[in-house]
Amino acid sequence: SCTVRVLSRQCWYESPLISVSLSTSSDGISELVDSYGFNALSRKTSQTKVGTQYAPWSHPPVCTEVLQGLRSKLCVYTNAAFSNGRGISIFTTPKVAQEFASLPPFQNATAMDKINVFSGAWYTQELPGKGVGMLARKTLKFGDGVTAHTPALLAYLEGELPTLQREKYFRIAVSQLPDATRDAFLQLTTVYGDERIRVQDIVKANTFQLEVGGQNHLAVFPETSRLNHACAPNAQYHLNPKLLTHYVRATRPIALGEEITISYTSPLEPTEMRQQHLQSGFHFTCTCPRCTSKGTDATLSKMFAMQASLNDWSVTSDGTPKLAEELLQLYRQEGLEGFMDVPYGFAALAYNAVGNSKKAVTYAEKAEEAILMKDGVWSPNLRIWEEVMGNAKGHWSYKRRT
Ligand SMILES: C[S@@+](CC[C@H](N)C(=O)[O-])C[C@H]1O[C@@H](n2cnc3c(N)ncnc32)[C@H](O)[C@@H]1O
Q1: Which residues surround ligand 1 with Cβ inside 6 Å?
Q2: Which neighbouring-strand residues pair with 102?
Q3: Residue 380 to residues 201, 251, 372, 383, Cα–Cα distance (Å)
Q4: Which atom of ligand 1 is nearest to the CA of 191?
Q5: Most buried of 49, 114, 195, 354 (most Cβ within 10 A)?
Q6: What residue numbers bound the domain in which 256 lies?
Q7: How far is the CA of 130 from the centre of ligand 1 (A)?
Q8: Atom of ligand 1 nearest to the CA of 188
Q9: Is there a single domain that holds both residue 234 and residue 308?
């Protein structure tokens, strides 16, 4: 019942990367757009009567009818005071809204101490052929924090509301944000440039996915949204659903003025699949060196063949520590430093299998570090390496290949 693939007979989970599909033609009525046009977007929070009777929400929730598939209504919940006045708007069910309200950021102001604080690590600039991008304001080394932010808008991931209905609620959500946050949101880039569905267009170009209350939500983080894509990115991100926070860290040294990038799609997919994902999700063709070099897919195939050998525990297996070291080297050569949890894990097992438990623990620690950077503390993959770190000699892999 593994979701994606198996690493040494254990399930290996991969965090989902999100590309939203947006239908604009099937329900194209203009009436709603007229009544919830840009007046709604330019409404100032200061002009809205903000009460306390809906605590922790600053505005009265605005709700849909009960949706058949969800057996619930969806409502816009805004907390304009959230995180020192940054604000947050959430479009979700009343039940999930309660779950949000019980999370540390709504309960305890100190939970947000190091979040939504400018790290001093970046600035933005228009870049040829890429729109705005994020660049390093100082030299960065492996593990340095780039950003740590909460979303301005979160929206329950559903496909039931007609596009223009959804737009109406998204607009209310955005309009209720504090002025600076709303303006930063509305300046974000779009994919279609379709004014009728501007907020969903912004969501399409900029969304991540966050699970709260067992439900996936689309999440837009205005600062983080300026990170462009590369197939050999120099930064990695993960989300902490309890803190509603998106963290970005450098995965290799980044020079002053160098662009900071993340990968919007798995960089371990073949080039054609990566390009398809980027085209359908974000409407651009990637021109990074891994996309233009002819050798990328052959290198990927070689990496997978090496992983298959390391994952082979039969007596004829040629999985050795030397092979594991070569695999690590290939990942680095490809610029995949942010995706080394799997090769570090294979190295841990390969060393343990020949009785070198010390090296096994070192690589298990590196696998853990890589998972924390890529998937965060919730990842079930962490447990695999905790077992090795806790008791390498008691692990099933110990001396399996001696
Ligand atoms: C999340 S936004 C990134 C910031 C965006 N460049 C901006 O101006 O705000 C995603 C959009 O940026 C552009 N983009 C991101 N990475 C790119 C790349 N490697 N090459 C060309 N365009 C890219 C695409 O238009 C994509 O839809």
Answers
A1: 129-133, 188-189, 191, 205-206, 225-226, 228-230, 282-284, 286
A2: none
A3: 33, 22, 11, 6
A4: 27
A5: 354
A6: 18-262
A7: 5
A8: 9
A9: no
